[in-house]
Amino acid sequence: MRRRWFSLAAAGLLIAATLLPAAPAMAAPTFKVPFPCGQSWSGQTRTDHSPANAIDFNRTDDLGDPVVASAPGTVDRVTDLGGTSYGKYVRIDHGGGYTTYYAHLNGFNVSVGQSVGYGKVIGWVGSTGGSTGPHLHYEQRLNGNDIQARFNGALALYWGTKTYTSDNNCAASTGSGTVNTAGADLTVRSGPGTGYTAVGSVADGTRVTIYCQTSGTSVTGTYGTSSIWDRIGSGRYIADAYVYTGSDGYIPGVPRC
User: What does the pLDDT look like over 227-244, one tens digit per residue?
Assistant: First the structure.
């Protein structure tokens, strides 16, 4: 009788394990470009990189430039491998199995166990380890496996070279721009897209305050084709393709809607 009870109990546990939903996976952190706010860096990905999904960041005279944490977390490795592999590198644990690596550093500015936030300087660009010239070797990993990097949720370019402008630790603020339509008024929409209701217009040459930016319908305008829309008031959006902001893409420091 006792043996039968254990059999029934085991069967019940198996059924429960089958019926209960698995715990949801933790969302990825919002990773930022690992350099101070407003800086632009060339990021290269290539199929013969090790690991494959790592990004090498460069810019002119970058030796000694600060490298910052791309998301909040805890430093769990500060290591010097000498003249091999990563050389001097830092690893940050972001929770949920996510980590980031910062390699070939010239020096360290953090220690193991230290909590870091966006924009915290963790070290400086160098050429240590197996590097042939100053650059930052950067990785995002999940459960130890390298993954394709994302910044602000957007997938990095694979494969090739792209310029990334950092909004890491930029203080939230407004931006501004000048409408340029070559004469016509620019339609203001109730949402970020041409399918939203027209709620007014702004004249060519008008200087506007941009409270936040978001993605919407792709529009071809004075400054090329863009899916960025600028909120210039409550329920008032204009296509960024017709606005001169001084930035090629999202404006550093201006929040996302």
Answer: 999 989 888 999 999 999
Q: For residue 4, what are its two tokens?
A: 């039968």
- C-alpha dist (Å) from residue 225 to 202, 228, 252: 20, 9, 19
pTM of the model: 0.62
Q: Are 232 and 240 in contact (CB under 8 A)?
A: no
Predicted confidence (pLDDT) per residue in 63-91, tens digit: 999 999 999 899 999 999 999 999 999 99
Q: Are 101 and 149 in contact (CB under 8 A)?
A: no
Residues 6+ positions from 182 with CB-CB distance below 8 Å: 204, 222
Residue 188 token pair: 């203001």
Q: CB count, 10 Å around CB of 174?
A: 13
Contact 98, 140 (CB under 8 A): yes
Among the listed residues 204, 211, 251, the one whose alpha carbon sits nearest the alpha carbon of residue 231: 211
